[in-house]
Amino acid sequence: MNRTSTAGRIGLGVAVAALLGFTLFPVYWMLSSAFDPGADHRGSAVLPSGFTLDHFRYVLDTGEFGRYLANSALVGVGTVLLSGALALFAAIAVARFQFRMRTKVLVMILVVQMVPLEALVIPLFLQMRSLDLLNSLLGLTIVYLAFSLPFAIWTLRGFVATVPKEVEEAAYLDGCGWWRMFRSVLLPLVAPGLVATSIFAFIVAWNEFVFAFVFMQDDSNYTAAVGLHRFFGQYSTDWGAVMAGSTLITLPVLVFFVLVQRRLAGGLAAGAIR
Questions:
Q1: Which residues contact 170 (CB under 8 A, 6 or more apart)?
Q2: If 0-12 CB within 10 Å is exposed, 13-18 middle and 19+ buried, where does residue 198 land?
Q3: Is the pTM of this model over 0.85?
């Protein structure tokens, strides 16, 4: 019995180690190539030949990657703030108020999430052109906002619906107005869901490539995902610069996850339980 248990634990450990190695190897390859002085147009070996920061200097100075990161940060923060505010008030409306076609509105929110994003490139391009929002960070933010809202509204609706109405009524009896009740009672209770939806909106805005590539015509308005594409040549690729740029793109998301991972897990779990 003990031998079988020990063998099972060893087998489980080997399987977990193999899965972990398979998962982390692309990250290792990215970091190895980013700091390897020999990783130019030939790529990097499994073991780096040395250590250098030249790829990062080239990407930030010559490649103007700092501007692209700033554009991505601006679009990402704008998407998070707008989607969080609009989704929260929309979730309160569909969870608290009774109105005609309420169920149909909720179904339409789900249907929007099922549409492939690639199918919307041409319609959104024509719409942004008619609104004179092409080649504009504001227009790109509006597009990402439209992608983030359905998930955010549906998720926050579950948090708002589980807050007892008696809690809000008690706040009103204590003399609170609606805004005071919202700020002091409702907002703290739905904060975990708001964190989870904000992370989703940030990832959508930070990593998206197709719409940013199609809508942006001026190099100065490129996001980081599109700016990284500039290091891929027609006949050769500067893999050191590509991996350095990929590392710079990955670090903000990684830091963001480390800072809010507990709130994210708690928010998603709470939403599932409620």
A1: none
A2: buried
A3: no
